[in-house]
Amino acid sequence: MANKTVINNSSTEKGVLQSAELYNYIMDTSVYPREHQCLKELRAITSTHPRAVMGTAPDAGQFMALLLKTINAKKTIEIGVFTGYSLLLTALTIPDDGKITAIDMNRSSYEIGLPIIDKAGVKHKINFIESEALPVLDQLLKDPENKGTFDFAFVDADKDNYANYHERVLELLKPGGIAVYDNTLWAGTVAMDESSVPESKLGSRKASIEFNKYIAGDARVQISQVPLGDGITVCRRN
Ligand SMILES: C[S@@+](CC[C@H](N)C(=O)[O-])C[C@H]1O[C@@H](n2cnc3c(N)ncnc32)[C@H](O)[C@@H]1O
User: Fold this and answer.
1) Residue 136 falls within a domain, yes or no?
2) Which of 86, 178, 200, 228 would bridge 60 by S-S if both were Cys, CB 3.0 to 4.6 A apart?
3) Residue 4 lies in a domain
4) Considering its fold, how many domains does the chain have in total?
5) pTM for the predicted model, two decimal places
6) Element (H, E) at 155
7) Is residue 192 part of a domain?
8) Which helix (H) or strand (E) holds 93?
């Protein structure tokens, strides 16, 4: 098959599907053949990064692009950029006059992907802010022009703060706006016995379990937890 792509181990580990064959089937049939060339390039240059596993999974990204198009998102916010896979995907999907506020406390990772974002011709849509995310969100909320004006939010940063991000993101989103939270299944560990979870995953596993309960009880949003990539929770602000 012309578009057949061998997935690297990190992608397989990230997936919550318990069959690598089925995961490969989905990727090779529906995801990789439609993935923009610049996104492929961004994945390739990220693959040598020691923390390459942090990049958003292409299957989850494809679904996110579908959501962005479905709601005609134009003004978006992203918390957690890394080398920019989800950022580039968003920038390629929203209209030419769309705007993304992208926050990450580490600009050097973003700079790895920046030449490809530039080559894709979408850099003008991005306002990258190097900072801890919470103070930036609080600052944005001080301006009444930002409240209730965002179409879409993607949250993919420190899991301990997901509930804090959610409270702020809800104020930024329009009614009907969508927030997507990444890694809410945390490599499947949320459903594992604690004793069988590697120690390195315990902290974010606990945070993910707490966030999943919190969001499931939040009547201000409609939700769906989707088992794509590492698990994404999609919320629509009522
Ligand atoms: C999982 S990666 C993001 C992956 C990215 N969405 C992609 O598609 O490649 C998480 C990112 O969140 C950033 N981060 C972690 N804690 C943060 C915080 N408190 N404020 C801002 N950025 C944070 C890290 O620097 C890292 O780049």
Assistant:
1) yes
2) 228
3) no
4) 1
5) 0.93
6) strand 150-155
7) yes
8) helix 85-93
Instruction: Give pLDDT, residue 6.
Output: 40
**pLDDT over 50 (residue 3):** no
How many CB atoms are closer than 10 A to CB 227? 15
Longest dimension (CA), the chain: 53
DSSP code of 28?
Answer: I
Q: Is 72 a member of any domain?
A: yes
Cα–Cα distance measured from residue 107 to residue 92, given in angstroms and rounded to the nearest whole number: 20
In the structure, which protein residues have their CB atom closer than 6 angstroms to any atom of ligand 1? Answer: 54-56, 80-83, 85-86, 103-106, 109, 132-133, 156-158, 161
- Report the atom number in ligand 1 closest to the C-alpha of 78: 6
Q: What is the mean pLDDT of the chain?
A: 93
Token pair belonging to 161? 């703060």
Closest by Cα among 146, 185, 189, 187 to 169: 146
Cβ atoms 158, 219 nearer than 8 A:
no
Among residues 39, 26, 102, 103, the alpha carbon closest in space to that of 65 is found at: 39
Distance in angstroms (rounded) separating the CA atoms of residues 136 and 123: 20
Q: How far apart are CA 139 and CA 97, in angstroms?
A: 23
Structural domain boundaries enclosing 97: 9-237
Q: Which among 47, 104, 110, 131 is the best mutation to test ligand 1's pocket, defined by most ligand atoms within 8 Å of the CB?
A: 104
Q: What is the pLDDT of residues 70-111, one digit of tens each?
A: 999 999 999 999 999 999 999 999 999 999 999 999 999 999
